[in-house]
Amino acid sequence: MIGFGDLELLTLQQYWWIIVSLIGGLFVFIMFVQGGQTLINKLSKSETEKTMLVNAIGRKWELGFTTLVLFGGALFAAFPLFYATSFGGAYWVWLAILFCFIIQAVSYEYRTKPDNFLGQKTYEAFLYINGSLGVFLLGAAISTFFSGSEFVLDSNNFSHWQNPLRGLEALLNPFNYLLGLALVFLTRISGAMYFINIIDHEAIRERAVQSIKVDMIFFLVFFLGFLGWIFTKEGFAVDASGVVFMQKYKYLINFLEMPILLVLFVLGVLMVIVAVFNTVTFKKTCCIKTGGAGIVLTVTALLTSVGFNDTAYYPSTYDLQSSLTIMNSSGSHYTLMAMSYASLMVPFVLGYIALAWYSMDRVKITKEEIEAPDAHNY
Amino acid sequence: MEDSLVDWSRAQFALTAMYHWLFVPLTLGLGFIVAIMETMYVKTGSEFWKKTTKFWMTLFAINFAIGVATGIIMEFEFGTNWANYSWFVGDIFGAPLAVEGILAFFMESTFFAVMFFGWDKVGKKFHLVSTWLVAIGSNLSALWILVANGWMQYPVGMYFNPDTVRNEMMSFWDVLFSPVAISKFLHTIGSGYITASLFVVGISAWYLLKRREIEFAKKSMLIGATFGLITSLFVALSGDESAHQMAHKQPVKLAAMEGLYEGREGAGLVALGILNPNKKIGDAQEEFLFDIEIPYILSILGYHELNAFVPGLEDLVYGNEKYGIMGAQEKIEKGKIALAALEGYKEAKKAGNAEEAAAAQATLEAHMPYFGYGYLKAPEEIVPPIATTFYAFHIMVWLGGWFIVLFALVLFFLTKRDIQNYPLLLKAALWSIPLGYVASEAGWVVAEVGRQPWAIQDLMPVGVAATHIASTNVMISFFLFAILFTTLLIAEIKIMTKQIKIGPNGGH
Hints:
Chain A is mainly alpha-helical. Chain A is about 70% helix and about 5% strand. Chain A has one domain (about 5-370).
């Protein structure tokens, strides 16, 4: 029998990059919770309606939180040099993102509890900040995979960040706003689709459809802008001896040279478009499934492409040769192998998540449930 | 690296970790207590148990939310503030964190949702299983993070790779089943069970003092005190095992915990003492202004032998030939040889000189156990803050003893007498809730302050482990965390207190 230990280091590195990309894809999908958080006021006209919305995403927020934590953990274990360089280097961007998530974690539970110190409005503001600023900053941070950062590695592989803004300099590059804003509007679309699916309430559904129409336009503008930017810019390529150099149209070439990723990417985008079309035109309520799968495919393909095909996925514009590739930043063969065995648990985990999700969502959220005397409401 | 940076980085880590640890113990223990209560409900079908379960579950959720909020930073802080550490040992340290995510966090979060929103959506049994899985999941996540922490205290199962300039894992099982990791895990989750038991017993006592919810309070108290008595006895035993591990793996920490400057055979355990604040390592002053010592106990705890020699701080700093203890100065010299060999290796590699590289590597490997000492300047640097370690340890032990007595008394008066007639005991139970937190935090202070200056025992001092960043940044983020977490803590306590006042019959 062949085990993970028999695989070559490069294969394991690729396997783990795909897993990290997949976790990234799942995370962007589950961020419909964040998108939903920005719609709470817009889609509700009464306290009961608002509570319905908050409860709908309130039973899912922890999955997203956990996925973010897993994203961090998987990067730490599989690509520790990225973990050290990026989190330590782009200090303020990551801390800002974390602050946006810290305030989310208490808000559902504390929002309507008596004597909650900060007041309901504050907790709702926390949810809004998490859903807008948090998502935007994540997008901007991921965008530096394409625009590059300023760091240098010393002979101990300790990293030295060169910009005193410690990551906030990413916001000085207008191109980084494209992915950030695209993500904000994408998660608002998926949030609205989730509401339409889970809440059995006509008025909310109608308002959600309206919001999707507007958000889709903004999403397309920023997303196409982002694609236009990365497909035309110079990318960070690596030659056979590990030397990093700038290559014209690198990110477009990646997709052309890896047609399977191109197919998955295009398929994913089409699924999102079809989901939006069906929701808006035919008033279908099930489109979060198609749209969600589309988001996972698109993001996974995009992230995979930036680590494969001799690309430096976390480039340094300050010192090109310090750029991180999946080859020079990964864990050892042994660790990747051990982790690969652990990864075999993932289908099992996804299985029970799906089971719990299905059991819970079989019964749609209604006004009656929210108004029941012994309901556990957020 | 500048001192203020290291200090702020430590301060921030201590702040965030101690805040996080205010909430984790209750989650670890209350999860099981709630699961036991729900099991009673499913077995008896009695509405009383359902109501009881739901009440404690509400408190569980309030606590859980802030535990999650303060927890996420812990995972990322290794990267943000200890970037060099993250590279140097990330190959070993990252794996338990990732496995924790895959195996534990998802279990917790998935079934948490079922536990709270599933009462009328899934069957009784499925719901009960979910509640148990939340408890098991949170304890599993404790396992993985404590394995990671245990590894920092006693690094095993790895080798140093000079090409990547980091430690790489050789055996996942050695890391997982390291004796330090296992005893740390048991001792720590046990302390969480005690905290939760104190919480349940104390709140129940408050109801009895107020003559409210009598049946509810007595039955909750019975479950809490039983769980508490069993687990506090168990924690005492696992504490003994921890001391034994420490004597062999971290003798400096053990000596600091006991304020033991000069080693001796048949060393006693200081039951109570006030350290001489002017005492310096190596001077002739008395160690204690006042102390009560129980003879031989430290030798027995540490080495399971009546007359075993327990090295003191001075033996460990300056060496003791008679007992074959190497002094820190000698270790520093060996450490410097290791660091120089590493540089030599890198240069030889660059120059393509295989022979020189191999020689340098051999020197490096021979001196690797002392690698971290090479970064130290003076042998006294290996000594942690003695007073903090000493007092934290003794507070923890005394409180641990008190909890055993308290649980036993509560159980006795609850079952053999009418406990309502003993308001003093009820008040003691109520006021022991904060003491549980004090004991638990003190335990972490012993573990983490007591191992200074090491981020990884003998391999990397904290000064080398920190991220290269201007200390102002960390100072600002320290205050941001302090303000945010304090605000959230106030909110949590207010909400919790209100819910307790409302009680099991007043709301949900």
